[in-house]
Fold this protein.
Amino acid sequence: MESLLRPDVLLVFTYAPAGLGHLRVTDALHDGLPGGTHSVLLGAQDTRITYWHRLMSVNPALRGIMEWFQLEAQQEWFSELYIAALRATSGHLYHQMEHLIREQWHDKKVMVVLSTHFGLAHQIAAIRPRLEKNFNIKIVLVVQVTDATSMKIWFVSGADLLVVPSVKVKKDLERFARSSHTHTEIAVLPYPLGKTLGIQLTEEEYAQRFRQYSGDSDAMIHVVLPVSGAAVGLAYYEQFIAKLAESSGRFRMHLVISDTMHTRSFIASMKTRRAVTVVSGASDKEVVANYEKVYGEHVIALEIVKPSEQSFKALLSPLQRGGAILLFMAPIGKQEEDNLGFLTDHNLIPERALRLTNDPEKDVAFINQCIRDGIFSRMADKESFHSKDPELAGNGVTQFWEKVDMLVQKIR
């Protein structure tokens, strides 16, 4: 990847405070960079992104409106309006980029901007010509689509490269590309997953994971519950945690959560629970680090999670540190529905993940039945996970950088 090591190339990672997913993917890509590259992390400072993300996630009425706009009949014109609004409000981001260039540029000639959020990607595409003209630089815009979704909002006119997780998504976004009369390369690459999660377990660690799934064992069952950045589903989590602890003394739950005004009372309540360890962080970056730290310190058996970008952890095998069995809460919106569709199409549901009902009592009973009946044990059998499908490969980060390197090679 020699082009990325050139002294005149600067890599800029941008992320938005709209849930933890975009930051997780950004971190995975950053951690997979070859040594010696010049890179900076640029977090959007527009707090409206955070506000609207949380409001749409927790308010049933607004969530219903959001889901209505995501239907195919409405999606076309709504996306156009939304994109126009994003581009029209890109002034703040321009000033951030301007400040970054003045600080970091020096002998640089090429800026590769990597975006994992469609909002920032559209805004960068809007300000790109102005930045290139005013500072006599070349900007390459690369967008990593973080869901297996075909929503038009993810097609960024003006991007050099869109990286998507499936052929289906590529075909749909190519339709939008043709209608926009712009040339944007769309590449299908395996989803980028964090380096820590992909570490191979030792034989003893794998045996420890396998014992957790056995109904005949008394091994502690480690369960991770990552709460979304928008603090969605707190009422469900509270009941689920209580009922799971009542059902068996084997369960040890690790709650990974942001410490905010919306979660503070919930955190205080959870800290009084005997079977719960609360791992909280004040910033999104700290929460993402805490999540990987929990996986690094314990052999995790189960993860109770929303079907957001975390869905793609189903690509990991039971032999890898992040290869816990995923149990999905009810999806919210088209993107989460599409993620579940991707997993179902590739048989990862039910081979690596299962869906819950969102009734805490029924879900706890289901989990205990899966342990008694050996269902989890069969899902975690190390001999059962083999796939030659290129969409399910575990080296998505490496392939991503190889693709970006080829893009930069063309610029002299």
